[in-house]
């Protein structure tokens, strides 16, 4: 029996959302264009970079309980990304004891392309 | 006939105000004096409670703290005419503790009968609402933004900006909610305001509704405040009767309905999204943001979530103008802040003052040191998730930025004083224990981290590999601070880190070695 | 130096209030002219709220025994509210003293929720009980402000003296001991409530006396 493996990008598609703008993002050297409001996780998945997660699936709105993925934004304190990041680094918190973080982030358009690095 | 004021505030009642009122009634009847007893709010000088005031020709004269057994002596001393007595303090409003303050939001508390519509209007009530009814929603939002008013719940987000976001959101209906779940230990300003001046909160909610286009409001009060719940419910019933609420507010075209919702003992419902979940009838579990409540809040609709003090401050802004409010304070912290002096404090209560005063000045001028008379060892500012500060940090000015830079926070303005018998390691453990007890359970850093935090601190205190466990504790704190979904887990490390930073001797494991020390006497570590 | 309108007790616009009547003129006839402290007024007077009617004070009233009809009426009374589950459960608790297991399916059906949803809310909030409380309910505050004035020792005394852990009831149903993290009486700690009545500056001996009096009064 063949198993059809459908990719799960973590958070829902935002095509058709109110803000119909696109953002181009460079992830690990691969450029990908996504609708504004798409999460870093989904953009990374579309760019072929699989980011581990526990509580996210693209058929549900972001839940934010596993805290496995944290995004650190240069120029902003803390690890909760907001709109208009300048540049972002993602890091995977230590898997041993605890560790989770918010998966979903949205940003609006007209920002310079961001260059997140993998963990 | 004499008018005597005996507070009905729950703090005053907790030390016998009801018995004092009954004793006054009894003595008056025996002596044939005609006395009208008004149960007002508290003047918020808790060390003088029950504070009994008598209306005299040039002002009210206060006597306190009054016990039921003192009442006969007061009558003998002619207190109904403001006579001298060892419990007398002269004109209440001239007591330096009060006179030094800038009571803008607390101007009516303790002065008026809380449920009297005449008193409320005679003391400036409804001026702000009448003005707001003549403005457009955009104008109201602009005025509040121009005043620089920041949220008083702890986050400090500009109120006008939040209202503008809700106003501009296209969805309908919109809601106004007030977060009166004042769960932080060391804070009681919201409670005193609701018990002492309930119409102020109602007026603030109606104005918020005008500003954002909402016609329904909810006030979420914690269940641990039954007197505040009862007072607010009575005030709302009265407001409906007098037309301040209902389909035509003050005869205008704008309608507003207001409801009290009582909590059920969960501290986490003081977090705005958990409060919204609770209002929706669910478990108080924190939501991920985005989306912000201003865009998708209660039942997915645009919702204003404001603290009691924020809404009370809005009245000051609209009644006096944004310039008046902005001229108080320093830097980007405008207007007045309401501090609550609590804990082991000689003179506790509410201090409402413009920003810029230092913590040391607050403790010296107002708190007057500890209640026990022993030296102050630490002060925790901002509630159970605030940092513990030693005397070396007392010259920090009480404003948001200065405290944030020092690794502390103002929060809701609670200042809890500890004397030198405090066990700082136990306080650090208490912070983790509190987080573990009150965690909503959704995110791992908080749910699991707090429990592990308690275990690690227990090991440190027991002297097991203390140095290594302190390193582990620091690592745990970093993770909880960076990784938690909300400020509950995110700020629990703040008191713990402050103990590690300012009181390292309490966390080096030596407490276990000196276990046999006399515990009844001298200073603890 | 505070300006006139900042002084406590004065109208913010600077208009001064009428003074209270002078001692010599305290006659009933003059009262009508004094609007600052008027006589009967519309709405509710402060005396009414002197005895708050709801919640913890309700526990001193004998809770009703379980009744299917009363439960349905209670549920129905709140069904029209937005987000009715929590107010409904609190109302059931106020009526019966706790939320009986038999109420859960009734609530679920009326509000179109699953029993799991109702169970989840019922077990999440500390105030909501699934078992009857003791006749006397004591809450000891364990907040930081109360800790700073000996609250920890008082809490230890309560648990050891009553031989109960927090959240437990005495086997004979006479008493329930609970912990609470802050009662809002932070400048007059240690704080305790006994059957909803708040007490400040409570010492161990005083707590013992209050518990004794309450439990004795209940048995009388």
Can you offer a commentary on this structure?
The complex is a heterotrimer of chains A (119), B (525) and C (220). With 119 residues, chain A is mainly beta. Chain A has one helix at 40-46; strands at 22-27, 30-35, 69-74, 87-92. Chain A contains 1 helix and 4 strands; from the N terminus they run E-E-H-E-E. Chain A starts with 21 loop residues before the first strand and ends in a 27-residue tail after the last strand. The model of chain A is unreliable at 80-119 (pLDDT under 50). Chain B has 4 domains: 2-93, Glutaredoxin, CATH 3.40.30.10; 117-326, NADH-ubiquinone oxidoreductase 51kDa subunit (Rossmann fold, 3-Layer(aba) Sandwich), CATH 3.40.50; 329-419, Ubiquitin-like (UB roll), CATH 3.10.20.600; 424-513, de novo design (two linked rop proteins) (Up-down Bundle), CATH 1.20.1440.230. The termini of chain B are far apart. With 525 residues, chain B is α/β, with parallel strands linked by helices. In chain B, helix 9 crosses helix 11. Chain C has 220 residues and is α+β, with helices and mostly antiparallel strands. Chain C has a 4-stranded mixed sheet with strand order 2-1-3-4, with helices on one face. The longest helix of chain C has 16 residues, at 204-219. Chains in contact: A-B, B-C.
Query: What radius of gyration of chain C results from the CA coordinates?
Result: 23 Å
In whole angstroms, how far apart are the ends of chain B?
57 Å
Mean pLDDT of chain C: 77
Strand count of chain B: 16
Terminal-residue CA separation of chain C: 60 Å
Strand order of the largest sheet of chain C: 2-1-3-4
- Return the CATH topology of one domain in chain C: Glutaredoxin
- CATH names the topology of the largest domain in chain B as Rossmann fold
Number of strands of chain C: 4
The chain pair forming the largest interface, with residue counts per chain, is: B-C, 113 and 78 residues
Indicate the low-confidence ranges of chain B by residue numbers: 518-525
Domains of chain B, number: 4
The CATH class of one domain in chain C is identified as Alpha Beta
> Largest sheet of chain B at a glance?
5 strands, mixed
Going by CATH, the architecture of the largest domain in chain B would be: 3-Layer(aba) Sandwich
Q: What is the element string of chain C, with H for helices and E for strands? A: HHHHHEHHEEEH
Shape, principal axes of CA atoms of chain C: elongated
CATH C-level class of the largest domain in chain B: Alpha Beta
Number of helices of chain B: 22
Contiguous low-pLDDT stretches of chain C (5 residues minimum) are: 1-45, 47-60
């Amino acid at each position: 029996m063949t198993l059809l493996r459908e990719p799960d990008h973590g958070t829902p598609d935002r095509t058709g959302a109110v803000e119909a703008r696109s953002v181009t993002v460079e992830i690990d050297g691969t450029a990908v264009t996504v609708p504004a409001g798409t999460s870093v996780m989904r953009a990374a998945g579309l760019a072929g970079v699989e980011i581990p997660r526990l509580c996210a699936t693209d058929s549900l709105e972001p839940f934010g309980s596993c805290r496995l993925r944290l995004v650190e934004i240069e120029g902003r304190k803390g690890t909760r990304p907001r709109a208009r990041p300048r540049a972002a680094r993602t890091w995977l918190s230590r898997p041993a004891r605890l560790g989770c973080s918010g998966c979903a982030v949205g940003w609006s358009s007209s920002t310079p392309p961001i260059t997140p690095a993998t963990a | 006939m004499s008018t005597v004021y005996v507070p009905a505030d729950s703090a005053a009642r907790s030390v016998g105000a009801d018995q004092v009122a009954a004793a006054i009634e009894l003595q008056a009847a025996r002596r044939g004096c005609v006395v009208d007893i008004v149960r007002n709010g508290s003047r918020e000088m808790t060390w003088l409670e029950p504070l009994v005031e008598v209306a005299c020709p040039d002002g009210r004269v206060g006597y306190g703290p009054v016990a039921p057994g003192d009442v006969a002596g007061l009558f003998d001393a002619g207190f109904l005419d403001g006579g001298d007595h060892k419990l007398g303090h002269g004109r209440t409003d001239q007591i330096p503790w009060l006179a030094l303050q800038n009571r803008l939001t607390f101007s009516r508390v303790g002065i008026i009968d809380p449920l009297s519509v005449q008193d409320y209007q005679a003391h400036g009530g409804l001026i702000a609402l009448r003005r707001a009814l003549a403005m457009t929603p955009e104008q109201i939002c602009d005025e509040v933004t121009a005043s620089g008013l920041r949220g008083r719940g702890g986050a400090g987000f500009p109120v006008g900006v939040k209202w503008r976001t809700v106003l501009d959101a296209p969805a309908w209906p919109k809601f106004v909610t007030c977060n009166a779940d004042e769960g932080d230990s060391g804070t009681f300003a919201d409670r005193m305001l609701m018990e002492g001046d309930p119409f102020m909160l109602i007026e603030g909610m109606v104005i918020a509704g005008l500003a954002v286009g909402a016609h329904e409001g909810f006030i979420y009060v914690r269940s641990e405040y039954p007197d505040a719940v009862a007072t607010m419910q009575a005030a709302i019933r009265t407001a409906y009767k007098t037309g301040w609420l209902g389909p035509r507010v003050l005869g205008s075209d704008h309608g507003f309905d207001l409801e009290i919702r009582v909590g059920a003992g969960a501290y986490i419902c003081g977090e705005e999204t958990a409060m919204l979940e609770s209002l929706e009838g669910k478990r108080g579990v924190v939501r991920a943001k985005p989306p912000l409540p201003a865009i998708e809040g209660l039942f997915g609709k645009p919702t204003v979530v404001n603290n009691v003090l924020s809404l009370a401050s809005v009245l000051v802004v609209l009644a006096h103008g944004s310039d008046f409010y902005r001229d108080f304070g320093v830097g980007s912290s405008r207007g007045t802040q309401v501090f609550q002096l609590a804990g082991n404090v000689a003179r506790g209560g509410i201090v409402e003052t413009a920003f810029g005063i230092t913590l040391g000045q607050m403790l010296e001028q107002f708190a007057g040191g500890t209640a026990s008379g022993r030296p102050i060892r630490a002060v925790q500012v901002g509630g159970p998730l605030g940092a513990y500060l030693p005397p070396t940090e007392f010259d920090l000015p009480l404003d948001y930025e200065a405290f944030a830079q020092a690794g502390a926070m103002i929060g809701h303005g609670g200042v809890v004083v500890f004397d030198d018998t405090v066990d700082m390691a136990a306080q650090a453990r208490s912070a983790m224990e509190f987080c573990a007890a009150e965690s909503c359970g959704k995110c791992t850093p908080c749910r699991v981290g707090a429990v592990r935090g308690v275990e690690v601190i227990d090991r440190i205190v027991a002297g097991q590999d203390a140095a290594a466990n302190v390193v582990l504790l620091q690592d745990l704190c970093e993770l909880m601070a960076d990784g938690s979904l909300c400020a509950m887990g995110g700020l629990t490390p703040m008191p713990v880190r402050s103990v590690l930073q300012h009181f390292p001797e309490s966390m080096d494991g030596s407490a276990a070695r000196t276990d046999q020390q006399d515990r009844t006497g001298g200073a603890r570590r | 130096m505070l300006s006139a309108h900042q002084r406590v007790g004065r109208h913010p616009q600077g208009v001064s209030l009428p003074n209270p009547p002078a001692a010599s003129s305290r006659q009933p006839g003059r009262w009508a002219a004094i609007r600052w402290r008027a006589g009967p007024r519309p709405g509710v007077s402060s005396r009414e709220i002197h005895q708050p009617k709801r919640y913890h004070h309700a526990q001193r009233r004998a809770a009703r025994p379980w009744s299917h009809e009363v439960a349905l009426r209670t549920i129905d009374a709140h069904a029209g509210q937005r987000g009715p589950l929590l107010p409904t459960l609190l109302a059931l608790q106020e009526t019966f003293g706790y939320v009986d297991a038999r109420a859960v399916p009734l609530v679920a059906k009326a509000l179109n929720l699953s029993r799991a949803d109702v169970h989840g809310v019922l077990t999440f909030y500390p105030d909501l009980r699934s078992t009857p409380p003791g006749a006397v309910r004591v809450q000891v505050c364990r907040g930081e402000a109360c800790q700073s004035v000996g609250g920890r020792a008082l809490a230890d005394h309560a648990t050891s003296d009553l031989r109960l852990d927090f959240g437990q009831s005495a086997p004979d149903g006479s008493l329930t001991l609970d912990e609470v993290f802050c009662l809002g009486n932070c400048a007059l700690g240690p704080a305790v409530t006994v059957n909803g009545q708040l007490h400040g500056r409570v010492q161990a001996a005083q707590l013992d006396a209050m518990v004794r009096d309450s439990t004795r009064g209940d048995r009388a």
